[in-house]
Amino acid sequence: MNDKQRNQVLGVLFVGVLMGALDIAIIGPALPAIQAEFGLTPRELPWIFSVYVLLQMVSTPLMAKLSDFYGRRAVYILDVAIFAVGSLIVAASHGSGAWLLLLVGRAIQGFGAGGIFPVASAVIGDTFPPEKRGGALGMIGAVFGLAFIIGPVIGGLLLGFGWHWLFLINLPLALGVIALGWRLLPHQRVAASGRFDLAGMLALGLALGTFTFGLNEFDPAAAASSLADPLVWVPLLASALAWVALVRI
Question: CA Rg, the chain, in Å?
Fold first, then answer.
């Protein structure tokens, strides 16, 4: 692969990672409009962020491992497609009765976004020579800082057309990334042999997911009473047990 091809690959990876990172930062300006449309309480509103991050954490190790078995291109395109489906579901949510549908869409978005960054990093590791790998990884890592700078600005501009456009804008971007990714990204499998560690992956997903859930329900302003809440201590205990199980596995 020559320098031009590597730069094209980096461009596809950059846009995909930026798309996933933006959907954490871009939603900020739309929160008042979303809260008003769905009639959300202050306790319910943070779940728009939390469910995204929760599924992102569960998806990251899973998708990274799947890319070893089935190839970077297939899994990267799958992640972008999942992210696009989630965006469409969120954009299709209307009215107070569709609050759960909105959360489902955000969860699907997070699950897709969770695989985009690690697979993009793996592609760079596979295709870039050592002397250029650090710079390429640095560019991909800088996407998150860029997303939090431009995300609120883009969100504010799109909000004038309705908050749904914050998610509809992902659809043409995702189609472009899928089309270019299919043409440019390497598609050979990395792991020629070996087995998929399903038990370990389930334990890791459970450990991360329950920890995130319990931490999200914890109220620092009332720490003692919050820790006595089953919605806090049960997930945190389950997370601790899952980490022990993961080590044993």
Answer: 19
Q: Which residue has the tokens 């038990």?
A: 199
Task: Give the integer Cα–Cα distance in Å for 53 and 209.
Answer: 9
Contact 214, 233 (CB under 8 A): yes
- Residue entry with tokens 């991360």: 208
Residue 60 backbone phi and psi in degrees, to 5: -55, -55
Whole-angstrom distance between the N-terminal and C-terminal Cα of the chain?
Answer: 39
Residues 4-59: tens digit of each pLDDT: 888 899 999 999 999 988 888 888 888 888 888 888 887 788 888 888 988 888 89
- Residues with Cβ within 8 Å of residue 20, at least 6 apart in sequence: 83, 112, 113, 116, 117
Say if residues 76 and 182 touch (Cβ distance below 8 Å). Answer: no
> In one letter, which amino acid is 178?
I
Residue-wise DSSP of 22-79? HHHHTTGGGHHHHHHHHT--TTTTTHHHHHHHHHHHHHHHHHHHHHHHH-HHHHHHHH
The structure tokens 């914890």 sit at 218
